[in-house]
Design goal:
Layout: E1 4-5, E2 12-13, E3 27-30, E4 35-40, H1 45-53, E5 60-61, E6 66-68, E7 72-74, E8 86-88, E9 102-104, H2 114-134, E10 150-154, E11 164-166, E12 169-173, H3 179-188, H4 196-212, H5 216-226, H6 233-243, H7 262-285, H8 301-325, H9 338-356
Parallel strand pairs: 4-6, 9-10, 10-12
Antiparallel strand pairs: 1-2, 3-4, 5-6, 7-8, 11-12
Length: about 350
């Protein structure tokens, strides 16, 4: 996640800001620009500054960090999901690029689950931005009704909800937004890490397997690294919850859950690749890592992936020590064994090839 600042006064901003508290400028996030932009009206200082840079009457003037408030506004989910992304005022969608991917959500009158829905959408916006930064294709259900990407954000209070993925549809139990519930599950399942963003990154890994692994050679290499992705899933699930992970699993898998089935190994490894890339990007934005770690400067090929890991390992160690100094658990409580890095390198190369296409 890059560092943001107000185009008008330079105040440091968070990704979620819709208002600059220093100068009062209304803000919206433009995915195409990867920036927080001022919604400027005629007569605004920001508009005047923009006119000096660009005499043309442009509705979108990235050089001054402004957009015309008569042409753009915030997403319709501004209040219900605290969404600060921009949409055109006329002739276009009323929901932003991230919110449009949500197929099912709580009703506006559902006071119990709307806060959890807003938290889930906030995590999803971070996911969508990272996927865009990586250049990965996002095909929605409108373009591909059978396998396009969609999210069902459901509440387990009124029905049984299983977080998972099927044919492009990612289902999330909104109860995961409750800290107590999520922590109880984390402890019960002996997981070192469990977050909303982590769930999204894992499930999006399932979505991208058929998107990225299309060539016969890639499928064969995937089988060598992860195992047969088409092996009986229910049998593997039953075995995992009956016997647990095999002894010594840490030498070949990024997590114990990854040992359950090759498809879960892929999804877990994919999620960790996203963890690493986004955290490095954030660290670089704030000066904790070299500029070469940013998502906007692609690290390609085998040497590129090695560079990512060379940057990541000391950063992860330092962040873990900082957390311990505050009395918290390690921020990244995982060990990346060489077979795990081989799997992650494969995913890195597939993502880079997809971005090039």
């Amino acid at each position: 996640m890059r560092d943001f600042s107000c185009p008008q006064c330079g105040q440091q901003l968070a990704f979620e800001n819709s208002l600059c508290l220093q100068c009062g400028s209304p803000l919206g996030f433009g995915l195409a620009d990867r920036a927080l932009l001022i919604l400027a009206k005629d007569g605004d200082p920001a508009r005047a500054a923009g006119d000096q840079d660009d005499p043309g009457d442009s509705a979108r003037d990235f050089t001054s960090g402004t957009v015309d408030a008569q042409e753009f506004r915030l997403c319709d989910n501004r209040h219900v999901a605290q969404c600060n992304w921009l949409v055109p005022r006329s002739g276009g969608p009323t929901l932003c690029e991230s919110c449009r991917l949500t197929r099912t959500r709580p009703a506006d009158q559902d006071d119990k689950w709307l806060p959890a829905f807003a938290e889930a959408e906030a995590a999803k916006r971070r996911l969508v931005l990272e996927l865009t930064e990586l250049g990965l294709p996002i095909v929605d259900r409108t373009a591909d009704p059978d396998f396009g990407l969609a999210f069902d954000l459901l509440a387990s209070g009124s029905q049984q909800v299983m977080t998972g993925h099927e044919n492009g549809v990612i289902t999330l139990d909104l109860a995961e937004g409750d800290d107590v519930h999520r922590e109880q599950l984390r402890v019960a399942m002996d997981e070192p890490y469990r977050t909303l963003l982590g769930h999204f990154r894992h499930e999006i890994g399932h979505y991208y397997f058929p998107v990225l692994v299309t060539a016969d050679a890639d499928l064969e290499l995937s089988r060598e690294l992860f195992g047969d992705p088409f092996a009986d899933y229910q049998e593997a699930l039953d075995r995992h919850y009956r016997s647990g992970p095999p002894s010594g699993w840490e030498d070949s898998f990024v997590s114990s859950y990854a040992t359950m089935h090759p498809a879960e190994d892929w999804a877990e490894t994919f999620a960790h690749y996203l963890h690493i890339r986004d955290t490095l990007d954030t660290a670089a934005a704030f000066g904790f890592a070299p500029a070469g770690a940013t998502l906007e400067r692609p690290q390609v090929g085998r040497a590129g992936f090695d560079r990512i890991i060379d940057l990541w390992l000391p950063l992860a160690w330092a962040l873990n020590m900082v957390n311990r100094s505050m009395g918290h658990r390690d921020l990244y409580p995982f060990v990346l064994a060489e077979p795990v890095l081989d799997k992650m390198r494969f995913i890195h190369e597939l993502c880079a090839n997809a971005a090039n296409r």
